[in-house]
Amino acid sequence: MKKQGLFRLRLYLIIMVGILVLFAMLMFIPVDLGPHDNTRMIVDQTYRIYIAPPCYEQTEVTNNLLETTFGSVVESSLQPESACTAEALSTINVTMWSALKERLFPTRWNW
């Protein structure tokens, strides 16, 4: 009986240390985070540029517009319309915990 109790204690200790290591990894290890592939984008087909929705009011574009996703913009040969669009879509360096929260509950690129 005594050996079984000692075994359980060691098992609980190993599990707790594992949880603490996982927690430390989530809180302190930095990762690069970019927009989701399904983030909304606006494309001006005349000028062959793409625009982030928060930057749309600042642009001068034609009426030949198309709504698409960031994933399809990356696959094409389109250029960002301005520094505003490039900055709005730039990757950020965050902790793994923040990246997990952003993937589960999008806020930054949720246009």
Report on this structure.
- Keywords: Membrane, Transmembrane, Transmembrane helix.
- The protein has 111 residues and is an alpha+beta fold.
- Helix content is 43%, strand content 21%.
- The chain contains four helices and six strands.
- The strands form two sheets. A four-stranded mixed beta sheet has the order 4-2-3-5. Strands 1-6 form a two-stranded antiparallel sheet.
- Strand 2 and strand 3 form a beta hairpin.
- The longest helix is centred in the first third of the chain and has 27 residues.
- It is rod-shaped, with a radius of gyration of 23 Å.
What can be said about this structure in brief?
The protein has 111 residues and is of the alpha+beta class.
Task: Give the ordered list of helices and strands.
Answer: HEEEEHEHEH
**What does the overall shape look like?**
rod-shaped
Q: What is the β-strand count?
A: 6
State the low-pLDDT regions, or none. Answer: none
Transmembrane segments: 12-31
Keywords: Membrane, Transmembrane, Transmembrane helix
SSE blueprint and pairings:
Blueprint (H helix, E strand, L loop, with lengths): L1 H27 L1 E4 L6 E5 L4 E3 L13 E5 H6 L3 E2 L2 H6 L3 E4 H9 L7
Parallel strand pairs: 3-5
Antiparallel strand pairs: 1-6, 2-3, 2-4
